[in-house]
Design goal:
About 40% of the residues lie in helices and about 25% in strands. It has helices spanning about 1-35, 115-170; strands at about 35-40, 45, 55-60, 75, 90, 180-190, 190-200, 205-215, 220-225.
């Protein structure tokens, strides 16, 4: 009789344990049912907070995510596909794109880069290019100034040659005469020169000659003395 009582007690314990297990299964099924609203049309509305994941995807069979067999790719969201590419994660398709938000700034070479990082890079490059453009502009100004200086030097050199050539055109006082006043002109490489001068017999055998040549803003002076015997 005692053995029968012990057996019944053990049976009751097993039944209670089985009842608890069934209750746990029902709880899990209830939780799962709140996650999958319509398994026929692949409609997922939400996941329990305990999973740390939430989703809202309405994807009938015709719009379900798809990947190429053996591609090792992942497609997330209605109408998403891998586009026939391998080893990719897709959140849309070539005709339907989605944004990935709240992406942290990448730190490693293979990390994703967010818009803040791109904007910072754009600002840095813009500032750098602005500085370089300023340097290029300054260099261009200096080159223009150098070019102008070279052109001015070339013009002055040609004017000087023209003025000096005009001085050589001044005739000197003839024998038997005392004083000679003369004008001379010359032209060199597009520049004209004019000279004014005078020469005189200061002694019987000595002649003094003075002259000034002018071309543009440049003036050339000259003087000479000759003695004959």
């Amino acid at each position: 009789m005692g053995s029968l009582s012990t057996g019944l007690s053990t049976t009751n314990t097993n039944v209670t344990s089985l009842s608890t297990s069934v209750t746990n299964i029902n709880t899990q099924l209830t939780s799962l049912s709140t996650t999958i609203v319509n398994s026929t049309n692949n409609v997922i509305r939400s996941l329990p907070a305990s999973t740390g994941v939430a989703a809202d995807m309405s994807a009938p069979n015709a719009a379900a995510p798809s990947v190429t067999a053996g591609s090792n790719s992942v497609a997330i969201g209605a109408n998403s596909n891998d586009g026939g590419r391998s080893n990719v994660v897709s959140v849309g398709s070539s005709t339907q794109q989605r944004q990935i938000t709240n992406v942290a700034a990448g730190t490693e070479g293979t990390d994703a880069v967010n818009v803040n990082q791109l904007n910072a890079l754009s600002t840095s490059m813009s500032q750098s290019l602005t500085g370089q453009q300023s340097q290029i502009n300054n260099l261009g100004t200096q080159l223009n100034q150098t070019q102008q200086a070279l052109q001015q030097t070339d013009t002055m050199a040609r004017q000087g040659i023209a003025a000096a050539s005009a001085l050589t055109m001044l005739p000197q006082v003839e024998p038997g005469k005392t004083i000679n006043v003369a004008v001379g002109v010359a032209r060199f490489a597009g520049q004209s020169g004019m000279a004014f001068g005078a020469s005189a017999h200061v002694t019987t055998n000595g002649i003094l000659k003075l002259g000034i040549g002018v071309s543009g803003q440049n003036k050339t002076f000259g003087a000479g003395y000759g003695y004959s015997w």
